[in-house]
């Protein structure tokens, strides 16, 4: 029975990824506001009702997979050595996950789409807040930090990811994002 659930979940993730890819392609071609849920559903051979079994809104299709990514990043934070400095824990985990984090939202097309669409920028902020809260709680529990300190560290780490993404975009994708993340963590190292 566990095997069937695992297969079902993998199948669900694959369908979600296909829908998300089609949605981002349509949004890039037609514009976010001009693309309907019906358009997306038709592009992948399903009904509007079926679309809503996978995503509550069309905005969510752009961020497919972020929930799983959040769970994995938080699990890595929880697995870090208890005696490790909390800032170092954040650095090592986000360094490891920088590629999937930057790729979330369907890659470069998704990133441009988010930056140019107010509804998607708002959804991105909601997704980030979910991550920050989960990471804060994991960091606080793992390292015995008060909520304020855990919030401060987590928000600073998020700012580093944002700055690295902006620099990467400014260089037309030529900058080494991992190196930018390392530079950011070094520049903001507490102490």
Please specify the SSE layout and strand pairing.
Layout (H helix, E strand, L loop, with lengths): L1 H29 L6 H7 L4 H7 L3 H5 L3 H14 L6 H18 L3 H10 L1 H26 L3 H24 L6 H11 L4
InterPro entries: Homeodomain-like_sf (IPR009057), HTH-type_TetR-like_transc_reg (IPR050109), HTH_TetR (IPR001647), MftR_C (IPR041347)
Pfam families: TetR_C_14, TetR_N
Keywords: DNA-binding, Transcription, Transcription regulation
What report would you give on this structure?
- The protein is mainly α.
- It has 2 domains: 2-57, Arc Repressor Mutant, subunit A (Orthogonal Bundle); 65-187, Tetracycline Repressor, domain 2 (Orthogonal Bundle).
- Helices cover 79% and strands 0% of the residues.
- It is built from 10 helices and no strands.
- Keywords: DNA-binding, Transcription, Transcription regulation.
- Residues 36-55 bind DNA.
- Residues 13-73 form the HTH tetR-type domain.
Put simply, the count of helices is 10
Strand content: under 5%
How many strands? 0
Number of domains: 2
- Label the structural class: mainly alpha
CATH class of the largest domain: Mainly Alpha
Q: Quick recap of the structure?
A:
The protein has 191 residues and is an all-alpha fold. Helices cover 79% and strands 0% of the residues.
Keywords:
mainly alpha, Tetracycline Repressor, domain 2, Arc Repressor Mutant, subunit A
């Amino acid at each position: 029975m566990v095997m069937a659930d695992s297969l079902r979940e993998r199948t669900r993730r694959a369908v979600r990824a296909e829908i998300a890819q089609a949605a981002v392609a349509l949004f890039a071609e037609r514009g976010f506001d001009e693309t309907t849920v019906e358009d997306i559903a038709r592009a992948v051979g399903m009904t509007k009702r079926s679309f809503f079994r996978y995503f509550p809104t069309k905005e969510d299709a752009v961020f497919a997979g972020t929930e799983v990514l959040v769970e994995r990043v938080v699990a890595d934070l929880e697995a870090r050595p208890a005696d490790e400095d909390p800032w170092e824990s954040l650095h090592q985990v986000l360094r490891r996950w920088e590629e999937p984090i930057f790729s979330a939202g369907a890659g470069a097309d998704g990133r441009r789409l988010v930056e140019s669409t107010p509804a998607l920028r708002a959804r991105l902020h909601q997704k980030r807040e979910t991550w920050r809260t989960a990471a804060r709680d994991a960091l606080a529990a793992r390292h015995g930090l008060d909520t304020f300190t855990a919030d401060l560290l987590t928000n600073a780490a998020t700012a580093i990811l944002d700055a690295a993404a902006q620099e990467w975009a400014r260089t037309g994708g030529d900058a080494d994002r991992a190196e930018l993340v390392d530079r950011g963590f070094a520049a903001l190292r507490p102490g």
